[in-house]
Amino acid sequence: MISARFDLKHVFRLILNSKTYQLSSIPEGNNPLGEANFSYYPPRRLEAEVLIDAIDQITGTTEKYTSPIPEPFTFIPESQRSIELADGSISSSFLEMFGRPARDTGLESERNNRSTADQELHLLNSTHIRRKIEQSQKLRELLQAKKKPREIVEELYLTILSRYPTDEELEIVREYAQPGHEGRRPMMDLIWALINSAEFLYRH
Amino acid sequence: MSRGLCITRREAMRRGLTGAAGLLLANGLGLLAWSETQQLKAKAKSVIQIWMWGGPSQLDTFDPKPEAGYDYCGPLNKPIQTNVDGIKIGELLPMLAKQADKYSIIRSMTHGINGHETAAYMVQTGRKPGDRLVYPGVGAVVSLFKGYDAGYKGLIPPYIVLTEPQGRFSEAGFLGNRYKPFATGGDPAQTRFVVEGVVAQGVSDEQQRDRRELLHKLNTFEHAVKDDPALKALNQSEEQAYELILGDAGKLFDLAQEKDELRDRYGRNTFGQSCLMARRLVEKGVPFVTINYKGWDTHKQHFQIMRRKLPEMDKAMATLLEDLYDRGLLDSTIVWWSGEFGRTPKVQWEEPWNGGRGHWGNVFSAVLAGGGFKGGRVVGASDAKGEQVKERPVYPCDLIGSMYELLGIDPDGNLPNPQGMTVHVTPTAEDGVKMGGRLKEIM
What we know:
Chain A is mainly alpha-helical. Helices cover 46% and strands 4% of the residues of chain A. Chain A has eleven helices and four strands. The longest helix of chain A is centred in the last third of the chain and has 13 residues. Helices cover 36% and strands 13% of the residues of chain B. Chain B is built from 13 helices and 16 strands. Chains A and B meet through strand 1, helix 5, helix 9, helix 10 and helix 11 of A and helix 6, helix 7 and helix 8 of B.
């Protein structure tokens, strides 16, 4: 880094082009030592704050956080991301459900990234997430832009999963959007399915 | 080399260690002995907590003082006889009066705290706030000892709140997220009880199934990495979630399955239907259900609100007790009625209250029924005006400890603490908390 005169882009290029960073999460073979020796990138679930920030970014929505300190109430500006919350007591039920610690002990083990049934219930079926998807201005504009359906699906995949859909996936979506599922329903369900997919929820 | 009374250091160490080990063993055996005999005596399997949010007035409910005069009783000065000789309760509770043999009234609850949050914390944890630790409420402790860790296999979470949670002052404390309650949200009195996460408004069962199929098909990453333990856990959670959404477990929240006549008896309002929901949950084996009943903080318009709310509470609670009894569930279900404190006995007729009651933590009432508690009794007494404890003070930790005993939870046992400290389930004398002794009179 010193030789590059503290050029951050140089460091990024170095890390992103490395074999380690680019390791796939899909293990080759079943060697039991593979996991211990990092022969593949172990998938890790996104932390609570990162997850809600990602969902907010996709849907163009924000969260409302308040803190009782300083008195009487302080409203955290909505443009501030959840990862920037300064104190463990400023929280929301989403953050608590997904394992964000209250920072009572200062131990790293206090954060719990294991998935539980009530987290799944929330992602799959809660009004909180449903409202974000259905009332999202950003997504509505995306869907209404005069484009071919294939382009819309590609846009959605790029927005949510940062990649293009494979031909197989395009085929599945096309089948789903057959008559029987009218209007915005198939696209809303696609957004819902992508947000609930393991690829979105896990860092890989 | 030993010489008469002199022993070698090695010998002393060995004797000391075996002695200590012996003590430990004896201690261990002692604990085992407690839990085995107590487990046999433990009759209660579940608790229904009716939380009177805001603090209900003791004079107008279970501790009437007709001789105190208009300044204290207001218009409600004719308490009614119950079906137990010698016990009279407020005139607006006629249906509960006919069920008095099923519950016992504690008229000398006290903690002296007049702030909502502090008092709520005190009543639900038995301890004062401001300690190094945030203690768990009764529900979380029961969820710990009778929930998943103790072999509870139901799909419905073991600690349910109908319908909004109270938040930081009645929750899991240092026990962590696993023991937080599941708050249903929604309103059971509506045609469709929209339980958060289980029932999605506007999404039919068929749509749920359709999009679930889409999710499975599109989940390409998961298919590629299916052996990863974290993703297996995700899969399992998803299956459990769908069992609740589409399966029989979720149907438990569908109150249309109950007869209309029974629903009418409970009362077609949020509290009434919540009581019915609580009975259904307890029938299915859920260990702890809290019904957060709001609106008792009557600083103004106290008597108007009492006239409106007490009949509603009376009808629902009396039907709940009767229903539990008829189904043979009352012996295994504790019903605990309490608020965070009582209300000022002397009515505040002056401005700005114009006939209201303030907070009163010096003495207030609680009601316990079922689960091994004897009915038809009164524990303790308040003075002639209902202002101070006259005899047998009962502190929150006494009541909570009694419930734990009947549930088979050792009140002197330890709670798992992330910092490895020794924390007892209920406070002991060393914690410096005032105690009046467990409710042996009704156990």
